[in-house]
Task: inverse folding
């Protein structure tokens, strides 16, 4: 009998084969959209923002904004790559019940899909960072570390999303996540403006959101202002979300697929 | 090698309540059965009888709540992988990937079983031939008819050369012609030595494909045996079906009962069934009593009558 790793790879191959058919559609939402934001807001709107504004830490707006949108796009990609496909494929006629009828165990199905989600969010981050660098929006070679940081941010959202989505009877509740979670986080996690610009009373709230940790991590790496203890806190926070999400997902996958 | 394929004793499946105020739902309520190699089995019963839950337990995708279950001599709780590697599964909803081609669907499924690609290609060619889809390999599943999709699902389920093929309502939703093509294919598989285990609520399907039937109702087994045995044990040889004009049925039945008929009379909303050894003789009695049914038909008893006798209900509402 093959090892569990080999089993996960079998499940992974399904997603790769599918992706070869559907990748064109995914480019728009996961790469083109954030790049349009980068250009429209970072370059366009950024011209209106005074350069070297103190609140932005003494850099121009594009340089400030780019790593923020990198992290916010990573969050969105993580949820898009997890919540929708999982909710769709766990139901009747989906890919999960089919795979569950073969030697694959629910954990193999989870691992194979996670591997694919990780590849997808990493690929999007690579493209985004390359464009950032091309626009001259990165100040430090440490921006290369913003790649794994963005991928980690994506997975910190993808793993809990998958753990939740596999329990859903259909895909409808996922839409609510975009309205009530993605949008507010996108706007208020230091993506478009520094958290210090918010009233002091709401700042702790922002510091508690996972996206802020992703934004601050990516930004401090891109600007080269990273302090390693704080970076360790960010990585620890996001890593903990991944870990908890994974452990919960193992349980919910088994319950959903071996009911 | 043991000739017992599946063995269940006191098998129970209970689902947890949907919410905090709900009550647990018992889908399978303590059933015992033994399925032997070389026979084909049907689980027969109306919707909600517990057929699909039983099939899911046999398929090792649903752990039993209580009782013991052995599939191919192994325990699904500890050897699920090994058992599933030797099963073929045909779900009711096909569950094909519609965006992929016919061959890609087979490729993915073969990979799930760890088969090397050249082996999958060779088997796919044979299986598509068998499923009468040989010229459709490169088409997207989207483009296939319902009958073709069901045949493709059967072809897919055979990619690992399974010893047991599990089919959940294999012809539900297909037109009569597509059903007959499918039965023919399944019959061939049976002759090649694949053991079929299927659920159905169609009598003709059960009679066509099954050597032995397990009749289920409300999570329990109410009867088992070959189709002929079940009919002999639970029904008379013939049935006289009487349809009356609207409003006339009650009077007609009352008259028949007054005539002290000893045979069983079954009143359905649209007709009366008279279970008798001699249908023509019964019809003569109807005429002697001066009854004028709109239609009268003598037929051989079927499994439908068995089910009615056992549960007091028809199979398909």
Result:
């Amino acid at each position: 009998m093959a090892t569990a790793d080999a089993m996960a790879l079998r499940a992974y191959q399904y997603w790769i084969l599918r992706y070869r058919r559907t990748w064109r559609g995914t480019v728009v939402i996961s790469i083109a959209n954030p790049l349009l934001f980068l250009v429209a807001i970072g370059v366009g709107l950024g011209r209106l923002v005074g350069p070297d504004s103190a609140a932005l830490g003494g850099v121009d707006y594009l340089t400030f904004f780019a790593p923020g949108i990198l992290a916010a796009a990573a969050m969105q990609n993580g949820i898009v790559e997890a919540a929708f496909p999982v909710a769709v494929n766990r139901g009747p006629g989906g890919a999960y019940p089919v795979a569950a009828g073969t030697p694959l165990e629910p954990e193999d199905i989870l691992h194979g899909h996670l591997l694919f989600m990780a590849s997808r969010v990493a690929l999007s981050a690579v493209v985004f960072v390359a464009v950032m660098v091309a626009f001259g929006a990165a100040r430090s070679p440490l921006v290369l570390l913003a790649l794994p940081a963005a991928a980690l941010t994506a997975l910190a959202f993808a793993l809990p999303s998958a753990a939740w989505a596999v329990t859903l009877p259909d895909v409808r509740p996922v839409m609510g996540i975009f309205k009530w979670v993605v949008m507010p986080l996108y706007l208020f996690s230091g993506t478009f403006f520094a958290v210090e610009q918010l009233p002091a009373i709401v700042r702790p709230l922002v510091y508690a959101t996972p996206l802020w940790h992703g934004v601050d991590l990516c930004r401090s790496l891109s600007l080269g202002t990273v302090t390693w203890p704080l970076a360790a806190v960010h990585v620890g926070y996001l890593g903990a979300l991944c870990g908890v999400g994974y452990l919960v997902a193992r349980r919910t996958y088994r319950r959903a697929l071996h009911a | 090698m043991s000739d017992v394929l599946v063995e269940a004793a006191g098998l129970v499946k209970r689902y947890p309540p949907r919410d905090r105020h709900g009550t647990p739902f018992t889908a399978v309520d303590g059933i015992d059965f033994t399925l032997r190699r070389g026979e084909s089995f049907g689980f027969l019963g109306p919707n909600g009888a517990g057929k699909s839950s039983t099939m899911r337990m046999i398929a090792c995708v649903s752990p039993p709540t209580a009782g013991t279950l052995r599939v191919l001599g192994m325990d699904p709780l500890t050897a699920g992988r090994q058992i599933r590697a030797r099963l073929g599964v045909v779900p009711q909803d096909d569950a094909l990937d519609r965006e992929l081609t016919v061959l890609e669907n087979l490729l993915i499924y073969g990979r799930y079983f760890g088969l090397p690609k050249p082996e999958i290609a060779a088997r796919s060619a044979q299986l598509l031939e068998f499923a009468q889809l040989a010229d459709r390999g490169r088409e997207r599943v989207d483009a296939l008819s319902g009958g073709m999709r069901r045949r493709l699902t059967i072809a897919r389920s055979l990619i690992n050369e399974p010893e047991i093929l599990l089919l959940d309502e294999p012809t539900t939703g297909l037109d009569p012609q597509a059903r007959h093509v499918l039965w023919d294919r399944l019959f061939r598989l049976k002759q090649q030595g694949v053991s079929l285990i299927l659920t159905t609520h169609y009598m003709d399907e059960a009679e066509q494909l099954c050597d032995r039937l397990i009749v289920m109702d409300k999570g329990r087994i109410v009867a088992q045996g070959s189709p002929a045995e079940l009919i002999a044990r639970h029904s008379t040889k013939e049935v006289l079906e009487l349809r009356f004009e609207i409003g006339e049925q009650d009077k007609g039945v009352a008259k028949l009962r007054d005539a002290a008929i000893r045979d069983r009379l079954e009143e359905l909303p649209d007709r009366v069934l008279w279970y008798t050894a001699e249908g023509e003789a019964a019809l003569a009695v109807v005429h002697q009593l001066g009854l004028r049914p709109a239609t009268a038909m003598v037929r051989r008893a079927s499994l439908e009558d068995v089910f009615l006798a056992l549960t007091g209900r028809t199979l398909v509402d």
About this structure: DSSP finds eleven helices and 13 strands in chain B. The interface with chain A takes residues 15, 56, 59, 61-63, 80-82, 84-85, 87, 89, 91, 93-95, 97, 99-100, 104, 107-109, 111-114, 160 of chain B (CB under 8 Å). The first helix of chain B runs from residue 51 to 58. The radius of gyration of chain B is 23 Å.
